[in-house]
From TrEMBL:
InterPro entries: CO_DH_flav_C, CO_DH_flav_C_dom_sf, Diverse_Substr_Oxidored, FAD-bd_PCMH, FAD-bd_PCMH-like_sf, FAD-bd_PCMH_sub1, FAD-bd_PCMH_sub2, Mopterin_DH_FAD-bd. It comes from Duganella zoogloeoides. This is Xanthine dehydrogenase family protein subunit M. SMART domains: CO_deh_flav_C (SM01092). Keywords: FAD, Flavoprotein. It holds the Pfam family FAD_binding_5. It comes from the Bacteria. The keyword Isomerase does not apply. The keyword GTP-binding does not apply. Residues 1-223 form the FAD-binding PCMH-type domain.
Length: 313
């Protein structure tokens, strides 16, 4: 790990201002992903701005019947929250499917959204990776691709997004609230929050430099049956091969989002409309144009079977 300086911010404005005027600065809260990346020198911040003291750890009802989740709410607390369990069950289930209990105790809502890919070529600094070093090439393309993307990938990157929570947030149409160093606030629909890799896979999100996430807002509850199914190589502490988040209403209508198949949580509105026709019909639209390899073609079948089981209840 390379040397860095550290300070604890007292206010949101201070945190954003320090990050803006300090080249190479990064925010840190739980640090469950960032510290690992620093040890491997994949991330090399020169200055860490600790945001744990900003008081962004509340879960509050919004005036329109939704829920506002502070950026520093720990994953364990969010999964166990009474309102989340009752009204946003898919989110609670997704959180409990992710990581270990110890990691969930430290990981935060904002940090979970910002965790980086678990592509093994990204973590192996002896391998070429456009996401780690722009312009370096992608050793994953033509390599071992069992866990890689089947939709939305580019010729520069085939990595997948790792978060379980983000898949549920995408399903629920969450909105990410931020503040910029000049004090301006933004509300970013999660559909616009993540980027596809294109020619700049090093950029995971549309956040601006030194822009700080302060909260995530959920619309009012959808009702229906909430399901999160994570299919992985072992029963605990493993990232998804594919995951399916769904809300299914009594009349068979609903919505669906998928993880483990793309550079971002994957959702296609047309697939929601096809949900009453069954898992196969919805999957055909969800994964239209999929580009698979011999090693990851199974993901198409896995999504279809998982979604079909969810629809049938």
């Amino acid at each position: 790990m390379r040397a860095f300086t550290y300070q604890r911010a007292a206010t949101v404005a201070e945190a954003a201002a320090v990050a803006a005027r300090t080249p190479g600065a990064r925010f840190i809260a739980g640090g469950t992903n960032l510290l690992d990346l620093m040890k491997l020198e994949i991330e090399t911040p020169t200055h860490l701005v600790d945001v744990n003291g900003l008081g962004l750890d509340r879960i509050d009802a919004t005036p329109d019947g939704g829920l506002r989740i502070g950026a520093l709410v720990r994953n364990t607390d969010l999964a166990a929250d009474t309102t989340v369990r009752r009204d946003y069950g898919v989110l609670s289930r997704a959180l409990l499917a992710g990581a270990s209990a110890q990691l969930r105790n430290k990981a935060t809502t904002a940090g979970n959204l910002l965790q980086r890919t678990r592509c093994p070529y990204f973590y192996d600094t002896n391998q070429a990776c456009n996401k780690r070093t722009p312009g370096a090439g992608c050793a994953a393309i033509g390599g071992f691709t069992r866990g890689h993307a089947i939709v939305g990938q580019s010729d520069a990157c085939i990595a997948t997004h790792p978060s379980d929570m983000a898949v549920a947030m995408r399903l629920l149409d969450a909105v990410v609230e931020t503040v910029n160093p000049d004090g301006a606030k933004r509300a970013i629909p999660i559909a616009d929050f993540y980027r596809l890799p294109g020619n700049t896979p090093n950029l995971d999100t549309n956040l601006r430099p030194a822009e700080l996430i302060t909260a995530v807002t959920l619309p009012k509850p959808l009702g229906g049956r909430h399901v999160y199914r994570k299919v992985r190589d072992r029963a605990s502490y493993a990232f998804a091969l594919v995951s399916v988040a769904a809300v299914v209403q009594p009349d068979g209508t609903g919505r669906v989002a998928v993880g483990g198949v793309a550079h971002q949580p994957w959702r296609v509105p047309a697939a929601d409309a096809a949900l009453p026709q069954g898992g196969q019909a919805a999957t055909t639209l969800l994964l239209a144009g999929a580009r698979t390899t011999e090693e990851n073609a199974f993901k198409v079948v896995l999504v279809q079977r998982t979604l079909d089981a969810i629809v049938k209840g």
